[in-house]
Write a structure and sequence with these properties.
alpha/beta; 17% strand; Rossmann fold; five-stranded parallel sheet; globular; seven-stranded mixed sheet; 4 domains
Length: 576
């Protein structure tokens, strides 16, 4: 039966139909829903791993055991998993192994723009790139066939628009694939003597994959009425080209983005007067075409900065090639903001009030860098806050010790903050690390993590105790505070900064959006007492505003956290 399905849900359906039996991932927008959706199929074991490296290694272990496996992540997560990625390319697989990676062009929820196609080329691993939900199912299933036919892991590249757009699919039936494990030291033990013999195997495999790409229906040519232009494209860029131009010009749609065909592209280029490459981010296809000796245009007209949009394609086609293409104007942007009642707000207000340098990390608490809080000085990558404060304080020989903190979330701490804390304890830096524990992985949509006591399916499991863990790695001073209590935050932070040894502060309060969190009645404003001083605006809560010179609380948003009440010296804010 035909139905509408999100691209990520379609990948999950493809995993199910392909007989995948093991899924391990770390949540990261825009990839998260793949693993959440596949967990609903009882035939598939699915889990959240502490980080992407662990997820990939676990998926490889399942493949080695003879079970089709999958691990999913966003583009920066592939950086974390790059170590096993490059070596698994050498070992190959037993049962099929697919690695899902979702790029976030436009940085809707990311700290950089990154083109994952270069990982496929550098690691010498084939990559498929679906352009809609139907292809997401088909390409996922095809990826397992390629994985087992060519003895290789396969990258499945999604992007924000394909991941989070719906299109029509027609689900199929599940197949079962079980392989026997056979001990093979020369293939799977990558010490230098064996690895040297595997490299030529990888090169031969790449040559075979190029031949496969020449005839595979993953790459197709769609005829057009006018051969003045010929367009090579892929993924969401293909959708934009078709939306803007229809069947006006011939289009080569690449579904296998690495390795790409060679003769097929050369023959297509000969059939048109001008070759135009339309792709998002870097000129990956364009470089390949130039390496083939072809004359083409691409990044001279389609920027490698930001997300490619239909308007961009229409504008360039109309202005440069006079195609007459035109689309409506873009939708106005909506900037992110911490939710009303966010437990991080009181903490960041306190850090700003004390004029501290804050080495930040990846999570919704990164919004502590946004006005009016504006209290985060640096954000690099997952776990970098804990490692970064060590270098920051050590290098200043004590000058920054009592005025610098690191801030990291509970899930991010489990992902890659623990080793940084080990470094602080081992090398004895006088650093204060604040773990903002909101009892969930917040930024990617409320996924469980090792500190919550529940697994991906919501079943009870072992719960990592942060206080005990911090003590175990060598931190003697560990304090717990409630970020809704501004006086307590201020007192404890000052005490720990004054201590001449490393310390950890756990700012613990569940995310206000969690279903089990019970909110108090919204606050109201006594307009007779309100003097319009705007002290309540310093925390940047979207439920609080100034109207006609007086504070106003939006009762539909306010959760009664009381943080703004603590800022009002005139008692104008109070519970109903």
């Amino acid at each position: 039966m035909k139905q509408l399905m999100l691209g990520n849900e379609a990948v999950a359906r493809g995993l199910y139909e392909a007989g995948c039996m093991f899924v391990s991932s770390y949540p990261g927008t825009p990839s998260t829903e793949i693993t959440e959706a596949v967990a609903k199929y009882p035939e598939v074991y699915a889990e959240w791993a502490p980080n992407e490296k662990v997820a990939m290694e676990a998926a490889f272990g399942a493949s080695l055991a003879g079970r089709r496996s999958f691990c999913g992540m966003k583009h920066v997560g592939l950086n974390v998993a790059a170590d096993p990625l490059f070596t698994i390319s050498y070992t190959g697989v037993n049962a099929g192994m697919v690695i899902g990676v979702a790029d976030d062009a436009g940085m809707h929820s990311s700290q950089n723009e990154q083109d994952s196609r270069y990982y496929a080329k550098s690691a010498k691993i084939p990559m498929l790139e679906p352009a809609d939900s139907a292809e997401a199912i088909a390409f996922t299933k095809k990826a397992y066939e390629i994985s087992e036919q060519f003895d290789t892991p396969v990258l499945l590249k999604m992007c924000t628009r394909v991941s989070h757009s719906q299109s029509i699919v027609e689900p199929g039936e599940r197949v079962e694939v079980l392989k026997e494990y056979q001990k093979d030291i020369a293939k799977y033990v990558m010490m230098p003597g064996n690895a040297k013999k595997r490299h030529p195997v990888v090169e031969a495999r790449t040559a075979s994959l190029v031949e496969f790409a020449e005839t595979s229906d993953l790459n197709r040519v769609e005829e057009g009425r006018d051969h003045k232009l010929g367009i090579i494209t892929s993924s969401t860029s293909y959708q934009y080209v078709k939306e803007v131009l229809g069947d006006q010009y011939p289009v080569m749609k690449l579904g296998m983005i690495w390795p790409m065909p060679e003769q097929k592209i050369i023959d297509f280029a000969k059939s048109v007067s001008m070759l135009v490459i339309v792709e998002e981010l870097e000129g990956f296809i364009e470089s390949h075409c130039r390496d083939l000796g072809l004359s083409c245009v691409g990044k001279a007209h389609f920027s490698n900065i930001g997300e490619l949009m239909p308007l961009d394609v229409a504008k360039q086609m109309a202005e440069v090639w006079e195609t007459g293409a035109k689309l409506d104007e873009a939708i106005p942007p909506r900037p992110p903001v911490m939710c009303a009642g966010c437990p991080h707000r009181g903490l960041f207000y306190t850090l700003k009030k004390n004029k501290l340098t804050v080495i930040g990390d990846i999570g919704c608490y990164t919004l502590g860098a946004v006005a009016p809080l504006a209290s985060v000085d640096s954000v690099i990558c997952m776990g970098a806050s804990v490692s970064g404060i060590h270098g920051f304080t050590k290098s200043q020989n004590g000058a920054a010790d009592n005025k610098t903190v690191a801030v990291i979330g509970d899930s991010t701490f489990m992902h890659s903050g623990i080793t940084g804390l080990v470094n602080i304890a081992y090398n004895e830096s006088n650093a204060t690390v604040i773990i903002v524990d909101n009892s969930i992985t917040g930024m990617t949509g409320h996924q469980q993590n090792p500190t919550t006591g529940f697994n991906l399916k919501g079943d009870p499991c072992a719960k990592i105790d942060l206080e005990t863990l911090c003590h175990a790695v060598g931190i003697k001073r560990v304090r717990v505070i409630d970020p809704y209590n501004l006086a307590q935050c201020d007192e404890v932070i000052k005490e720990e900064l004054a201590a001449n040894e490393p310390s950890v502060i756990i700012s613990r309060r569940p995310c206000a959006l969690l279903k089990y969190v019970k909110h108090k009645a919204p606050l109201t404003v006594d307009t007779d007492k309100c003097v319009g001083c705007k002290a309540c605006m310093k925390i940047g809560c979207p439920a609080v505003s100034i109207v006609d010179g007086k504070a106003k609380v939006d009762a539909t948003q306010c959760v009664g956290c009381g943080v703004c009440e603590q800022l009002c010296k005139f008692g104008a804010l109070k519970e109903v």
